[in-house]
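Course assignment 3, question 2. Fill in each field.
Student: A.L.
Task: Predict the tertiary structure for the chain below.
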Amino acid sequence: MKGKRTTLETSACAIARSLEVIGDWWSLLIVRDALAGKRRFGEFRESLGLAKNILTTRLRKLVACGVLTTAPASDGSPYKEYVLTERGERLYLVVAALWQWGEEFCFPPGQLSYDLVDLQSQEKLRPLELKSQDGRTLGPHDFVPRARGD
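Answer field:
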């Protein structure tokens, strides 16, 4: 059927199941904004320029999947706020990795106007690295998926 999307929620692949939760660009941009401190529907809408119905759908899915939760507004108003759960906060590595990849491959030198910086030192972050159990830095050909129990 045209327009019918296949679900990945029963896939045996961890990447596929992750994409089922946060695989569309709006969802990951919502997570990016939540990591940056945005909590209100209007803040997400202003940042993303997203139609209300699409933003509502994405926020509901992120809540249903346990990435966000809702809480009463911190200012006591009758509104609700969207707060990252522990599961959602753990996406910080994904967001930082995508940022660093985009910084390297999607912008000509000098065009990107923001850096990711350490709040404590105010220094730009070092590139993320994948490490083995013994501390070696791994490259793209240094690891493979292997069935558990093998």
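Instructor remarks: The beta strands are 68-72, 80-84, 130-131, 137-138. Residues 92-105 form the longest helix (14 residues).
Grade: pending
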